[in-house]
Amino acid sequence: MKNQLLLIILGLALWSGPLLSQNAQIDPERLAILQQQKSYRTQAITGEAPQIDGRLNDPAWLSVDWGTDFVQLVPEEGKAPSQETAFKILYDEKFLYLGFRCFDDEPDKIVRRLSRRDGFEGDWVEVNIDSYNDKRSAFSFTISAAGVKGDEFISNNGTNWDESWNPIWFTATGIDSLGWTAEIKIPLSQIRYGEKEEHEWGLQFTRRDFRTGVRNVWQYIPRTSSNWVSEFGRLEGLKGIKPQKQIEIQPYVVAEIESFEAEAENPFATGKDQGLNVGLDGKIGVTGDLTLDFTINPDFGQVEADPGAINLDGFQIFFAERRPFFIENRNLFDYQVTNSEAGGGFTSDNLFYSRRIGRSPHGNPNLRDGEFMDIPNNTTILGAAKFSGKTKSGTGIAILESVTAKEFAQIEGSSGSREEIVEPLTNYFVSRVTQDFNEGQTVIGGMFTAAQRDLRETNLNYLHKSAFTGGLDFIHYWKERTYYLSANAIYSKVNGSQEAIQNTQTSFEHYFQRPDANYLSVDPNATSLLGTGGTVNLGKQNGNFIFQTGVTWRSPELETNDLGFLLNTDEVNQYLWAGYRINEPFSIFNSFAINVNQWYRWDFGGENLYQAWNTNLHAQFKNFWSAGMGLTYEGKDISNTDLRGGAALRRSPGVALWGYFNSDQRKKVYLNISGNLARGFEADEAKTVQASSISVGLTAQPTNAFSLSVRPRWSSFKRKAQFVSNLGQINGENRYVVGQIDQKTLSMTIRLNYNITPNLTIQYYGQPFISKGQYTNFADVSNSMSKNFNERFVAFDNSNIQFDGTTYAVDEDLDGQTDFNFSDPDFNFMQWRSNLVARWEYVPGSELFLVWTQRSNANGDPTQDLLPSLENGLFSRKAHNIFLVKWTYRFLL
Question: Which of 296, 338, 502, 687 has a C-alpha 20 to 30 A away from that of 634?
Fold first, then answer.
């Protein structure tokens, strides 16, 4: 029945697409013309270079022709644009110059919204340059009518746009009776290319008319195509330019003052602190296409706080990287183990997770009575270097080396002072190599990482002494890059003491001690662990109908969390995603898409753990509002981790419904709403799980310089069998307690942006967060895999369980003696995070920051309502305030 349901949903998707697609197709003759590759011929400047003032009146511009013939891509693909766009390109031995003329019949209506760099607000025009000419990567420069810059590094043929790339370049814009104009001056040192007498680069332009929602491109690329860089037009005529081996040095100085709530008798919590820090970032052009980046004592304090989160299922929470050194060129170090269009928790697994470098220390010393401790929040990064780029032969190279310091906790007490090591001296190494063949239609790559700790003279032998991972991968495209086959295989090896390896075997990601896993066993004498994983994908990415199917696996022994991110092991996942998309306007729609998904999971013992199916719809309407919804049915769900090392636990089957709505984001005020509703059910026990959430975002932009967004989110989660405690062995039997949880979570994210100029901005971010959970109806797990919900558990009643305010005591045989006890699992966690940042880029690449950071954590009464808890438990206490000034200057040598 379940397989029949999948076939019916898939058939509906295939059938409904052609039925809905009653739109006019592009005339075949016009399509043939549009698909011809365009070219533009530039030439070197022979006289004075243009002044970058946005006026296009310099004599140098007269020496080259205008590039024109843009075509509409959105919303009416293939049509002639209602507003013409033209460009010119010049160059000299150091710079590339671009001039844009964006015609507009109503210049007074040009939208000139200000934003911070990479804001992409209002009207803008963009150039993409494939200077490697590898058909896979490009450098993108965007300039808005308000003069705001945007820059991104494009990789994977347009599927990855990295906004963290921040080169130095110069621009100016202007408005006149014909529309608006822009001039751009790009140092050749900021892009990468090989050494040739005459270059041919890939070239593409895009223009957005914000008020009409129209996007025009120079080189036509169908919206049904997932190709981008490989389909660019050509830039010709670049003669005699030499690769630039520029050196950039950027020192910084940070002065910081902290104030926080003082603690009586605690010498480390006096209520105030201050510090001064200096460091250096640098970039050396080793060749024209390979760069060495380095940092000495990097400053990672100026980052936005992580959002509040509580995860009851035990899995790690993935937080995005925000530190400048690591986010720049991060795509070059990416080794995602599974790229699944169907989604799934396993898609977060990566051999390199940069937040492992400089993480909080592992150690947490035990304090004696009357002692206080000062422990670093993060491990000091003594230095780091990256060597990366791509050669003219199509070889991509990325190498990272970093060393973090030995860290100590300072301990003070009545018996004196002492210190204890909480993190050893550690070396991290990451390398990634790729090789393109046949203009990027086949790519082969590999990766190797190593984390090595100096555990001598430490009490940290529970850590791995060394951890290595490696992987090989390839992807091949055929039939004009419409179809692809990709595969990778990875391995890991960790080494350490018997204690360290036993800790790994029994950790959440592995649980070798599970009593029903007869294919696993804990080896207490092991000093190393070797594991494997991998993925195979087959897909179609071009056309109206697209799909992907694949298989991915993680052996029970795989361990990559020393330097990577690994959510879980002992899994083989099979998935399928198929979609039909209509990108041409029809009826009331600008675009429409329908998708189906399917997932199956097994463990390495052959047990089928999971079966689920999904269908979802997405539409943009002709008024530029959009909406979508999806329905998921979980037919089977067995967890090997719910009982934290115990036997597998059968979960209830269920359904989940989700949806979203967005109003027209071109307006001064727009709204977006999203929500979901989930139910777990069984024949004799309705609603074993109830989950719901709603998030409402309201954004207002009353002026071009000011915007405000507020997004409250509320969620409720109820489950009748939520893990509470692993009691260990009682009378020779492993015992586990579950309970019925009622969890409520409320948060609100506030963002404020005031842009005085494109280079002088003020930004505010704040988020109060509270989550509380109350447990009732505690039960003992009796038969975890029973198909009958009630047979899985034996409930405690008032006669055999007592609560003293902090601990539950259970007297199973009613003999008046406590047989076991467990702590009260109720919680009420509150958090406040905020940043106020004033940023001034006083010259390109050099910045001054004024920052105020405020944070506070608290635990409250779980019986109290959410809002009173925030007021009484969080906002009534003194917050931790940090004020800092950061100055940088970028020297070009």
Answer: 338
Asked whether the CA dihedral 796, 797, 801, 802 is positive or negative, the reply is positive
d(CA 358, CA 403): 9
Q: Does residue 13 have a pLDDT over 50?
A: no
Q: What would the DSSP string read from start to end of 764-797?
A: EEEEEEEEEEEEEEEEEES-TT-SSGGGGEEE--
Nearest to 766, CA basis, from 305, 115, 318: 305
Burial of 421-435, coded b for 16+ CB within 10 Å and e otherwise, reads bbbbbbebbbbbebe
- Please determine, for residue 1, whether its predicted confidence score (pLDDT) is greater than 50: no
- Angle, CA of 33, 38 and 43, to the nearest 5°: 150
Say if CB 294 and CB 285 are below 8 A apart: no
Which pLDDT tens digit goes with each residue over 404-440? 999 999 999 988 899 999 999 999 999 999 999 998 9
Amino acid present at 221 = I
- Which residue in 155, 144, 154, 139 sits closest to 180, CA to CA? 144
In the predicted model, is pLDDT for residue 290 greater than 90? no
Specify the fold of 37-239.
Immunoglobulin-like (2.60.40)
In sequence order, the 6+-apart residues with CB closer than 8 A to the CB of 301 are 254, 256, 882, 884, 886
> Which H or E run includes 267?
none
Q: What does the pLDDT read at residue 306?
A: 65
In tens, the pLDDT along 710-748 reads 999 999 999 999 999 999 888 888 899 999 999 999 999
**Residues in Cβ contact with 681 at an 8 Å cutoff, skipping those fewer than 6 apart:** 652, 653, 654, 687, 688
Q: Which two tokens stand for residue 862?
A: 């779980």
Who contacts 388 (Cβ-Cβ below 8 Å, separation ≥6)?
A: 290, 291, 293, 329, 332, 333, 397, 398, 399
Complete DSSP assignment for 654-681: EEEEEEEEE--TTSSEEEEEEEEEEEEE
8 Å CB contact between 819 and 810: yes
Residue 314 confidence (pLDDT): 78
- Cα–Cα distance measured from residue 98 to residue 191, given in angstroms and rounded to the nearest whole number: 15
Amino acid at 226: S
Cα distances from 873 to residues 264, 714, 743, 860, in angstroms, run 20, 19, 18, 6
Average pLDDT, the chain: 92
Domain boundary assignment for the chain? 37-239, 699-877
pLDDT digits (tens, 9 = 90+) for 267-283: 999 999 999 989 998 98
What spatial distance separates the first Cα and last Cα of the chain, rounded to whole Å?
69
d(CA 430, CA 748): 37
Tokens 């019916």 belong to 8
Can you tell me which residue has the tokens 């998708």? 595
The residues near 385 (Cβ < 8 Å, ≥ 6 apart) are 292, 293, 294, 295, 400, 401, 402
Which residues, 6+ apart, have CB-to-CB distance to 580 below 8 Å? 13, 14, 16, 17, 544, 545, 593, 594, 595
Beta-carbon contacts of 415 under 8 Å, excluding residues fewer than 6 positions away, are 368, 370, 371
Contact 444, 434 (CB under 8 A): yes
DSSP structural state of residue 394: S
Of 321-335, 407-421, 573-587, 739-753, the one with minimum mean pLDDT is 321-335
Q: Beta 589-602 vs 290-296: how paired, if at all? A: unpaired
pLDDT at 678 over 70: yes
Confidence of residue 305 (pLDDT cuts 50, 70, 90): low
Q: CA-CA distances (angstroms) from residue 717 to 612, 680, 759?
A: 20, 11, 44
Pick the closest to residue 194 from 289, 285, 266 (CA basis): 289
Answer yes or no: are the C-beta atoms of 556 and 241 closer than 8 Å: no
